[in-house]
Amino acid sequence: MPTVRVQEQPFELGAEVEAFAAGRTDMGAVVTFTGIVRDVAKSDLDVMEIEHYPGMTERAIGKIVDEAVTRWTLGDALVIHRFGRMGPGDRIMMVATAAPHRVDAFAAAEFLMDYLKSRAPFWKKEITSEGAGWVAATEEDEAALTRW
Amino acid sequence: MKLDVLYFAWLRERIGLSQERIETSAATVADLVEELRAREDRYALAFSDLSAVRVAVDQDLTAFDAPLQDAREVAFFPPMTGG
Prior knowledge:
The structure holds two protein chains of two kinds. Chain A is α+β, with helices and mostly antiparallel strands. Chain A contains four helices and eight strands, in the order βαββαβββαββα. Chain A has a four-stranded mixed beta sheet, covered by helices on one side. Helix content of chain B is 29%, strand content 28%. Classes of the chains: A alpha+beta, B alpha+beta. At the A-B interface, α2, α3 and β7 of A face loops of B.
């Protein structure tokens, strides 16, 4: 059963990966992706603030995961996405997929990431020593969806 | 009809509200946007460039020509930046 968690608190990557698909001896592949707050602003990034749309967020991610399950042979899937305030180096989110074969696990993980980027209602704000600004969506993010 | 209208990210900041309940007879999202624009400058400013605005009706992403019949909740926000 796929799991979707939208939460403010940090998550333990190792523990999540260990627990994910534990005991599923029919799964030959587990792929994980972790998104981390990156300091790319010209001035020092102090805080990343992530806003979301409670209710729609869970619903939108659930639909994306359902779509992945129909497209690939998956034994399990996990999406954890945080909101609230984070600092550089903090984990924002993770995706894990388990499949009998790695091709499905990799493809489904990439599909989930592409869709989470521009179809899950999160908005990032960067707060630096010079002020605050909303992170703009890129055309590349939107274009990434056309390959699926 | 009564509608809950939600605003996120810079739309919320420009309008100065995260949520409001309004009485409207707008038939589509586009009609609702026109009503909001006519209210005050802060709404007109927030909705000045609709190519930078996305809309969800009852928590499903949709288009500006979507009908509002039976809708309970309409949300306006910028393109999403998850992941």
